[in-house]
Design brief:
With 158 residues, this protein is mainly α. It has six helices and no strands.
Length: 158
């Protein structure tokens, strides 16, 4: 497994553990519901999106029959996406406290911008990896290939 794939998968699992832990804390302490945006982003951007990034970086080059177009960009994407999400989570936590609203908003803005840059890097890398051209289904007769000889004659293949 390539480094970006393994790293995104492990980061995904780490974000899941963090998101679940915060969720348990929110269930045990109802006052912690103010941290719901941080919890949601840990689970959705952290677990789900990082898992998608890791699986896509592994699968798309194999399905397309072409190597990843910009491998160093995938490494950059890993660091920028995780740093961005960490800053967003910090921003969500800081923003609920009146004394830290400005710092929370700044952290959210920078983190959101970094997360967006990471997503754009992902799109560019995979877009350039997937071959261009007309997409069409293969043209072959499945009945003839997979049907026993007697059945092929019944359905009209000779």
């Amino acid at each position: 497994m390539d480094w970006p794939v393994r790293s995104f998968l492990r980061a995904s699992l780490a974000w899941l553990a963090l998101g679940v832990t915060l969720g348990v804390g929110m269930a045990a302490q109802p006052g912690w519901a103010i941290y719901r945006p941080a919890h949601e982003h840990m689970n959705l951007l952290g677990f789900v999106t990082m898992m998608i990034f890791g699986v896509a970086y592994h699968v798309i080059p194999r399905f397309s029959g072409r190597p990843l177009r910009y491998p160093p960009l995938a490494v950059w994407h890993f660091w920028i996406a995780n740093a961005g999400l960490a800053l967003m989570v910090i921003g969500f936590v800081l923003r609920v406290h009146t004394s830290s609203v400005g710092a929370g908003t700044a952290s959210l803005a920078v983190g959101g911008a970094l997360s967006a840059l990471g997503a754009y890097a992902f799109v560019l890398n995979l877009w350039r990896t997937i071959p261009a051209g007309q997409l069409s289904a293969p043209r072959h007769d499945l009945r003839r290939r997979h049907a026993p000889n007697g059945i092929a004659n019944v359905v009209g293949n000779k």
